[in-house]
Amino acid sequence: MSNILEVKNLTTHYFTAEGPAEAAGDVSFSVRKGEMLGLIGESGCGKSTVASSILRLIEYPGNIVSGEVVLDGKDLVSAKEKELEKIRWKDISVIPQSAMNSLNPVYTIGDQIIESILLHEDVTKKVALERTKSLLELVGIDKDRWKSYPHEFSGGMKQRVAIAMALSCNPKLIISDESTTGLDVLTQAQVMALMKDLQKRLDLSIIMISHDLPLVTSVCDRIAIMYAGKIVEWASTDDIVNDSRHPYSQGLLNATPDLLNPDKEVSSIPGTVPNLVNLPSGCRFKERCQYAMNRCSEESPALLEVKKDHHVACFLEEGDYRE
Ligand SMILES: Nc1ncnc2c1ncn2[C@@H]1O[C@H](COP(=O)(O)OP(=O)(O)OP(=O)(O)O)[C@@H](O)[C@H]1O
Ligand code: SF4
Ligand SMILES: [Mg+2]
């Protein structure tokens, strides 16, 4: 299967008063056509930074320092702003971190979807309205509800409207940034199931950003795990669930209760994500890692393919260190 997006050695810094914070450090991964890729990590690991870098929407004091973001063969890091304006929304759209709350309370949800279509496409208002009705039906909302205001919808329905909006110009790729956070567990699962259904029906490519690894394992085809600005493991969901190699991925899997397996022992990862301005030397995970050894303080592990399509950045994979 060919790739719709290739992120190659992407490095993004925020130039803070204390010094540069490397929120994305030499990040590489790809998204296949029709694939849902999970981008997972705790708060502050750089997930939204990667999303904004892909769209070149990094704002001051941030800057893309190096790397490429290749969409369908075209590098967006070196593209002109005019070209990017055409690509954003039409080719890549985003369901932002606070999508539910980003709807304007004074306009009907239909008017807001229509406006986004008219802003990006040369069609009549009538065509935009018909498309809006189809989009609402596609996300499981009665088409006549286009006349409703955001306050007349539940959180889950507003989330569906945000998905309809993201789909409004038939994008090739959707980036969903923690878009179900804030919803109750059942509604989260329903929205995830809807995203999966749309991905299959429309042959969409989706980057699903979340801090909740178990939540995305039911919908993602592959998963990239991010820690303190680095991709530490990237593999098929099956491998992440059944053969995860990085201690951080293993910690994330054990850190959340599993509704289908209530007997599962839950244990949080000790410690916190390091300050990205003052990163420790060597492996960024070493202060929280039960396997850390001398080498982990001296060198930074590279992301290596340890078996087909399974990449890991940990010295444990390079030698016979594990018991
Ligand atoms: N505008 C900014 N100015 C300075 N530093 C920033 C800025 N935005 C992000 N950062 C730094 O980049 C790090 C990564 O931020 P980012 O928002 O990408 O993380 P995230 O993984 O999306 O977290 P969350 O799960 O909380 O959304 C932050 O911890 C912070 O150190
Ligand atoms: S490289 Fe070392 S510190 Fe980092 S995850 Fe592997 S064992 Fe732990
Ligand atoms: Mg974020």
TrEMBL record:
Sample GO molecular function, one term: ATP binding
Keywords, comma-separated and alphabetical: ATP-binding, Cell inner membrane, Cell membrane, Membrane, Nucleotide-binding, Translocase, Transport
One Pfam family linked to the record: ABC_tran
SMART domains per the UniProt record, alphabetical: AAA (SM00382)
GO process annotations (BP): peptide transport
Gene3D superfamilies, per the entry: P-loop containing nucleotide triphosphate hydrolases
Subcellular location: Cell membrane
Domain ABC transporter: 5-253
Keyword Cell inner membrane attributed: yes
Membrane topology summary: Peripheral membrane protein
Signal sequence annotation: none
GO CC aspect terms: plasma membrane
Source species, domain of life: Bacteria
PANTHER family cross-referenced by the UniProt entry: ATPASE AAA-TYPE CORE DOMAIN-CONTAINING PROTEIN (PTHR43297:SF14), OLIGOPEPTIDE TRANSPORT ATP-BINDING PROTEIN APPD (PTHR43297)
Family assignment from sequence similarity: Belongs to the ABC transporter superfamily.
Protein name, per record: Dipeptide/oligopeptide/nickel ABC transporter ATP-binding protein
UniProt source species: Virgibacillus indicus
Lineage: Bacteria, Bacillati, Bacillota, Bacilli, Bacillales
